[in-house]
Design a protein that fits this description.
The structure holds 2 protein chains of 2 kinds. Chain A is mainly α. Chain A is built from 13 helices and 2 strands; from the N terminus they run ααααααααββααααα. Chain A has one domain. In chain A, 70% of the residues lie in helices and 3% in strands. In chain A, strands 1-2 form a two-stranded antiparallel ribbon. By secondary structure, chain B is α/β, with parallel strands linked by helices. Chain B has helices at residues 43-50, 71-74, 92-102, 109-118, 131-143, 161-176, 188-191, 212-218, 261-270, 282-294; strands at residues 5-14, 17-27, 32-37, 58-63, 77-80, 149-153, 180-185, 197-202, 205-211, 221-226, 242-248, 251-256, 274-279. In chain B, the strands form 3 sheets. In chain B, strands 5-6-7-3-8-9 form a 6-stranded mixed sheet, with helices on both faces. The longest helix of chain B is centred in the middle third of the chain and has 16 residues, at 161-176. Chain B starts with a strand and ends with a helix. The chains are: A mainly alpha, B alpha/beta. Chain A binds chain B through residues 1, 3, 6, 10, 14, 102, 105-107, 109-110, 112-118, 278-281, 284, and chain B through 48, 51-55, 69, 71-72, 74-75, 77, 79, 81, 83-90, 98-99, 101-103.
Chain lengths: 284, 295
C-alpha cells in the first residue's frame, strides 16, 4: 500500500463517525421534507407570486417554478437552500481540516517526519475531503430518490395557475434528483476547495473556516441583494449562488456552469499544493 | 562516509527574531551529540529544520548525506518531537501500525519488545494517556524502526526517573549498535551518560562545542578547610591547582582544578582541623557556561 493511500485511508477512518452523523442528519432532513409534500400541495398557492423579489431569491423561486409541483416543492424546500448549505458547511469543515486542521493540532508535522512527501499528503487529504463530501452527497441523493414514490413526489400533479387555468406538472424522476445532487455537490465542492486552499496556504484552520464561510455567506447575501438592485450584479460574479439558483439544475437539467466549482477546486488544489510545498509548517 | 548531520551557516529568522544564527554543525556517524540550551534557545527550531518542517532563511542542512525533505532519507531517521501530537482517538497500537507501515515494518519484534520494556498499554487512545505514557509512545515510534539516525527533542521530558534510566540504557544500546543520536535537552545531567559530545546553543548561536571528557575536566571542585583561627587568603597564594580563595569566618573555601597534594600539604602546615569537598554538578557548569555567554 502506498504512503499516500495509507494517509487517505487513515484520514477517512478518523472521520467515520462525523461522516456518519452528517449523513444521518441529512437523510432525516430529506425524509422529513419529502414526507411533508402531500400536506403542502394544497397550500402551495399561497407561495405563488406573493413574495418580494428578495424573498423569492431567498426561496429560490424563479419564474416558472411552481412550489405545488413535485420538483418546485423539492427545489424551494431542499435544493435551493437547505441541501447546498448543509453540503457547503460539510465542505468547509473537511476542506479546512484536511491540511490546516492537522497542522493546527501538530499531527501533520509528525506525519511528515516519516517517509511521506508533502505532495502525497496534499493529494491524499484533498481526495479524502472530496470523498467525504461525495459520499454524503450521493447518500442524500439516494435517500431522496427512495422517497419519491413513498411521498407522491414521483406522481404528476394538476396545478391551478393564477389565471384559473390548469396544467399538469410532471413528477420528480431519479434523473432530476441526480441533476439536483450533482449541482448541490458542485456548489459545495467549490467552497471545499477554497477552504482547503486557505488552510494549505495559511496553516490555520480558523482562517480556512472563516475565509471560506465568508465567501459562501457573502456570496449569498450579495446574490440576494442583487435581485433588488442591479448595481450589485457585478459583485456577484464570485458567488456560487448566482449560477446555482439561476440555473435551477434540479428542474432544468445540468448546464455548463456546473463545471465552475470543479475548476475552482482544481485551481485551489494546485495553488494550495504549490504554496504548501514551499512554506514552513506552523507550530502547534 | 558522509556526516550523519551537517549544517553550514544554518539560519532561521522570523522578523527581528533570529531563532538559529549561522549554525555550523558536524555530527559524524555513530556519535551521540547532545544539543543543549535553555528553553527558546533554538534547539527545536534546529531539529525542525533538519527534518524540513521549516526552511532555513540561509545556510544548508543535510541529514545522512541528503536532504530532510527526501522521504528516502526520513525513512532512515527516527524522530521524537518535543510534544508528540497524534490524531485524536488513535491508540498506541494503531499509531505503531500506521507509522510502521510507511517504513514497511513487517517485523514487530523490536516494537513489541519496546512496548514491554516501557510497560505501555498500547490499546488506549493516545489522547487519553498521561504525559509520561504519551512520551513512551513517542519513544517507541522513534526507536521501533531501528533507524540509523535518531533525532530526539527533549526525550526524557515527562518520564519518571526509572524510565529515564531505561531510556538511557536504550540509547546506549542503540549507540553501541552504530546508530547516530542527536538529542536536545536543557538538563545536562540527563545526557551525561550517553553523549560523546555536546554543543551549547544560546539565542540561536552555537556558543560552545566540546567532548564530555573536556566538560568533566572543566568541572571545578571546591575544598573547604576549617581552622580554629582566622586565616588569610594570602596563605594559599601560589599553591598549585588553587584557582580561587574565599574566606567564610574560620573556613577557607578553595576552588581547585588539578592535583590536590600541594593543597593538602599546605592545609596541614596551617593546622586545618576539618576538610570537606564539594563538586559542582554538570548543571552548575551548564549554568556557568551560559552565564559566561551572556556576560
Amino acid at each position: 500500500m502506498s504512503a499516500g493511500f495509507a494517509v487517505y485511508r487513515r484520514w477517512l477512518r478518523d472521520r467515520r463517525l462525523s461522516t456518519f452523523s452528517w449523513t444521518v442528519g441529512l437523510i432525516i432532513m430529506i425524509v422529513a421534507t419529502a414526507a411533508f409534500y402531500p400536506a403542502f400541495g394544497s397550500s402551495a398557492e399561497a407561495f405563488v407570486g406573493g413574495g418580494s423579489s428578495a424573498m423569492n431569491a431567498v426561496l429560490g423561486l424563479g419564474s416558472g417554478i411552481d412550489p405545488g409541483a413535485p420538483l418546485g416543492y423539492l427545489w424551494i424546500g431542499l435544493y435551493a437552500n437547505v441541501l447546498p448549505w448543509t453540503l457547503m458547511a460539510l465542505g468547509v469543515a473537511v476542506g479546512s481540516a484536511s491540511i490546516a486542521g492537522d497542522e493546527d493540532t501538530g499531527t501533520l508535522e509528525y506525519l511528515l517526519a516519516g517517509p511521506v512527501t508533502r505532495t502525497q499528503v496534499v493529494i491524499s487529504r484533498f481526495a479524502a475531503a472530496i470523498t467525504v463530501l461525495l459520499v454524503v452527497s450521493v447518500l442524500s441523493g439516494v435517500s431522496m430518490a427512495a422517497c419519491l414514490p413513498a411521498f407522491q413526489l414521483a406522481d404528476a400533479t394538476t396545478i391551478t395557475l393564477p389565471d384559473g387555468t390548469t396544467s399538469i406538472a410532471p413528477g420528480a424522476t431519479v434523473a432530476d434528483i441526480v441533476n439536483g445532487t450533482i449541482s448541490s455537490f458542485a456548489v459545495a465542492l467549490g467552497l471545499t476547495g477554497l477552504a482547503f486552499l486557505i488552510g494549505a496556504v495559511s496553516g490555520r484552520k480558523s482562517w480556512a473556516i472563516g475565509g471560506a464561510s465568508a465567501i459562501g455567506i457573502g456570496g449569498y447575501v450579495l446574490y440576494t441583494l442583487s435581485s433588488m438592485t442591479s448595481s450589485l450584479d457585478a459583485l456577484t460574479w464570485f458567488s456560487p449562488w448566482r449560477w446555482y439558483v439561476d440555473d435551477v439544475m434540479l428542474i432544468n437539467g445540468l448546464t455548463p456552469e456546473v463545471l465552475i466549482p470543479f475548476g475552482t477546486a482544481t485551481v485551489s488544489l494546485l495553488v494550495g499544493w504549490w504554496v504548501f510545498l514551499h512554506r514552513d509548517l506552523q507550530t502547534s | 562516509m558522509p556526516a550523519a548531520i551537517e549544517t553550514n551557516g544554518l539560519t532561521k529568522q522570523w522578523g527581528d527574531l533570529r531563532a538559529v544564527d549561522e549554525l555550523d554543525l558536524v555530527v559524524p556517524p555513530g556519535e551521540c551529540y547532545a544539543f543543549l540550551g535553555r528553553n527558546g534557545s533554538g534547539k527545536s527550531t534546529t531539529a525542525r529544520m533538519l527534518l524540513d518542517f521549516i526552511r532555513p532563511t540561509a545556510g544548508t542542512a543535510t541529514v545522512l548525506g541528503g536532504l530532510g525533505s527526501d522521504p528516502a532519507i526520513r525513512a532512515r531517521v527516527g524522530y521524537l518531537p518535543g510534544d508528540l501530537n497524534l490524531p485524536r482517538r488513535m491508540s498506541g497500537h494503531e499509531a505503531f501500525e500506521y507509522f510502521g507501515r510507511f517504513r514497511n515494518l513487517a517485523d514487530t519484534t523490536v516494537r513489541d519488545s519496546l512496548i514491554e520494556r516501557f510497560g505501555l498499554d498500547p490499546s488506549r487512545p493516545v489522547n487519553e494517556l498521561s504525559t509520561g505514557n504519551r512520551r513512551k509512545v513517542g519513544l517507541i515510534l522513534a526507536f521501533m524502526g531501528s533507524p540509523e539516525l535518531l533525532i530526539l527533542d527533549e526525550p526524557t521530558s515527562g518520564l519518571d526517573p526509572v524510565l529515564q534510566e531505561e531510556f538511557r540504557d536504550l540509547l546506549a544500546e542503540r549507540k553501541a549498535g552504530g546508530a547516530t543520536i542527536w538529542l536536545t535537552s536543557h538538563v545536562m545531567a540527563e545526557v551525561a551518560r550517553v553523549a560523546d559530545r555536546i554543543g551549547m546553543i544560546d539565542d540561536g548561536k552555537l556558543i560552545r562545542e566540546m567532548t564530555f571528557e573536556d566538560l568533566r575536566h572543566q568541572a571545578t571542585t571546591e575544598i573547604i578547610l576549617g581552622f580554629d583561627r582566622a586565616v588569610s587568603p594570602d596563605e594559599f597564594a601560589g599553591v598549585a591547582s588553587v584557582t580561587g580563595v574565599e574566606i567564610d569566618g574560620d573556613d577557607v573555601r578553595l576552588s581547585i582544578r588539578g592535583p590536590v597534594a600541594e593543597i593538602l600539604t599546605r592545609a596541614g602546615e596551617l593546622g586545618a582541623v576539618r576538610i570537606e569537598t564539594e563538586q559542582h554538578d554538570l548543571d552548575a557548569i551548564f549554568i556557568d557556561l551560559l552565564g559566561g555567554a551572556e556576560s
